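Researcher: Go.
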Amino acid sequence: MRLPLNSKAIMIMTLICFVWGLQQVAIKAAEKEVSLTLQIAMRSGLAALVIYVYAKIKGEKFSMEKMTLFAGVCAGVLFALEFFFLSEGLRYSSASHMAVLLYTAPLYSAVGLHIFSAEEKLTARQWFGVMIAFFGLVVSMINTVAHAGFDSINYGDLCGLLAGLAWGCTTVVIRTTPLSVCSAKQTLLYQLSGAFIILMTISLFNDGYHFKPGTVAYGSLIFQTLIVSVISYLVWFSLLRNYQVASLSMLTFMTPFFGILSGIIILHEKVQANFIAGTVLLIIGLLFITVKTHQQHSKNKSVE
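Model: Structure:
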């Protein structure tokens, strides 16, 4: 039985959300030294190696059934697409934008699970939340960053939305396939390995490829590999096993705000008021979806 949130879980989730919000800023900050796609490929490969060695030391065995392997490949491809679109988005838009648009993923996963899972149908209240979130996206996408051109911002923001869509689809795959009963390490290993293979291939044939690492790039890669891709993900999966999922999901909505603040403070990005308003509407809409899910889980448990 999963536990309700306590002060320890809230503190850990706050730190995780801060790390996730800082992720886009770290990638963007190192862009001049290492191309964006190559950064993500390298960090994914290194993190996959660390997790594999860690799993072997712990004596953990992975399922190699065909359906599990197929689902793992799908999750790996979707994870690679998520970060490919994220890297493209960071080329043309701000880290603040990517921190918000990437976290449209719960919107897509909710709709996807409504279609593919009989146990996770959206209620009328949740569909209302979907409409609010969509309206928030429209508001936030209207010429939002003062220092960038309208055309490039729209392309970058579109990539951010596609990254969120890929993440949402990954969630649907994990929840509706044999991966749902696999260990967190195996699922994460599929995702990181897929990202490494696909993104490394793309980066090597990309005109923007460059690798001249300095202090910023090394620091960013260490942060992305160990803190983001290994520690934060494993801690997140551990929390999911011990605490109520819906409550944890609500706390992840702190991430976009940490992302915006990090972009403003570290990269000196300028964000217009309509982007902030759109972000607030988006999060309110997602809360309508998640809070209702939480209420349903509580009701189901009381019936049981």
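Model: The radius of gyration is 19 Å.
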